[in-house]
Amino acid sequence: MKKFRLSLLSIVLCIVMVITNMSVVFAADSNGTSGEDSITTSNGIVNAISDDITTSSNGLNIDKNDLKMDLKDVDYNAIQKDAEASGVTFNKDLTAASLYTTITANINELNKEVRSDDLTVLKNGTLIDSSDDNFYIQGGSTYRQKFWWGIRQYKSTYYAGLWAGKLNQSAIHFGAAAGLTALFGFVPQAAACIGGAWYMGSIANKVNTINGSTRRGIRADIHWWLTYTIVRQ
User: Up-side HSE of residue 224: CA atoms within 13 Å toward CB?
Assistant: First the structure.
């Protein structure tokens, strides 16, 4: 069973973490909006900009003008507060410019993987790993999918326990970069926020709680800006 690296409907958000200096000019203020019609959740961001990204046999294509326009509707203060409530520390405030940079930088990275044949584009627009290293064991599946908004980790009951232990240990003993590696399996492109020992411990506790209530393992959705949800498989 092939390991899904990226889904067509998931190639748009890629990473709210990268706070990089940009030359992109936004007509509206770079901090987004905060009115009744503003976007205040991670799911709202996904829904708002998903049409700005399309796929072809050559990889991912971005409508940059539409992406810039749609990113103006995000309430970045609300998104940042949501992440900070989970223990995330930001180096700089989130803005439309930083989110735009993060999305385009990570999509460019994915396109490089397509060109180098590390990722394969299917007819339905899904991008999959060119290697076959996905597997299933008793107690649920264990593999990782990569989306534009972040990653989805599937862990069997056995591997969920191991993962929780690694999350607890990594940030405590080896620092934030090691914590991100334990969380994602790699360090995301130019992460602008970090999750320390308290954040990693919170995820580990959630994993153990959900894992203890099922024989099917867990599924963890983790956004590039470090908000997350963990449910049973």
Answer: 32
